[in-house]
């Protein structure tokens, strides 16, 4: 069987199972069983599949995933992140679109502590959306910033998805984590500037209101008490990686311990919310490890059948310029983001894209950041962007059309940042090179 027939059969089986409603993890395992039995020697291939699955989750490099997840769950369930957003609310006083700016600033801070896009969006929606609508904010400047900034948790460390992508695509995890920081901060700055400019040009979208006069002490003290210590956790986690003091696993352990200590210091930690954090961490970690098992085996079947080599040779031998191939791969991710969740996209595309990326000589960390950017954009692209439905659940009176319209300018800004990163790769490679120096 030719390589393209093998690839078509494997992808066809996977897509049919997913279309039938089979969860993506089990769809991948069923496809792997079919592929291993058909192309790797029957029963011996299935035995090899089991060995691959066991070996794939025994890597020490995967330890940051449960630790980062636990760190975010502690911040979320203990309410520490909510106090930080209240402190940001006090600090931002009279700028146009004030509550939208609180969402962007607070969401960026929480993203640097949680690594969970859904938790980020859900918390901001439940905390700020009711107040925005009460103050007469238009949905375009209420829902849009919350959905847009929710995706930043996928980029800013501690991002469990970045660790997962590094594991699946064989990209150095520590470098990928720190390489995403500058693009994420550029995105947050553009979101902030867009809201200020739009609300300055159209004050009716976010009617100003009297927030009460607070002294500088009353505004700065909560920020110093509830935000700066949490930012110190982020600095410890990222700084230890950049400085070469700790591996990603060790820095994740430091962050998890610091999150528990912070919750205890604020007297927010109880056995109930601690147990809830552990429970959610175990659930998400088990799901992630199953995903890694399926993806590693899928990659090996593609390599064994020469499908990945055949595809990379077809692309590199087509005569297309490398930039056109890169744009094509990113366009595929953008299209898939309209219909699939991020993990499914990653599992399907990473085994196919990475051989092509290596053949073309692209920097792996740089491509990894671009891939994370497109995965982040996919969270907000209609019709099935996950964060659109999270926002809809928090604002049932807002129509899906209004939510999509509100998010569209932020998607355009994110695509602009992708173009900037393609034109200036140094923006993603600056911090990884600092690590290596």
Q: Secondary-structure map with pairings?
A:
Elements: H1 3-19, H2 24-39, H3 43-56, H4 64-78, H5 80-91, H6 98-114, H7 117-134, H8 139-150, H9 160-169, H10 173-179, H11 181-201, H12 216-226, H13 228-242, H14 248-265, H15 271-304, H16 307-316, H17 322-336, H18 342-360, H19 364-378, H20 386-394, H21 400-423, H22 426-436
Helix pairs in contact: 1-2, 1-16, 2-3, 2-15, 3-15, 4-9, 4-14, 4-15, 5-6, 5-12, 6-7, 6-8, 6-11, 7-8, 7-20, 8-11, 8-21, 9-10, 9-18, 10-22, 11-21, 13-14, 15-18, 16-18, 17-18, 17-19, 18-19, 19-21
How would you describe this structure in keywords?
437 residues, globular, 0% strand
Total tally of structural domains: 1
What percent strand? under 5%
Query: How many beta-strand segments?
Result: 0
Number of helices: 22
Order of helices and strands: HHHHHHHHHHHHHHHHHHHHHH
Q: Could you tell me the mean pLDDT?
A: 82
| Low-pLDDT residue spans | none
> How far apart are the first and last residues' alpha carbons, in Å?
48 Å
Overall, the morphology is globular
User: Using only CA atoms, what is the Rg?
Assistant: 22 Å
Helix/strand-derived category reads mainly alpha
Percent helix range: over 70%
Largest sheet: none
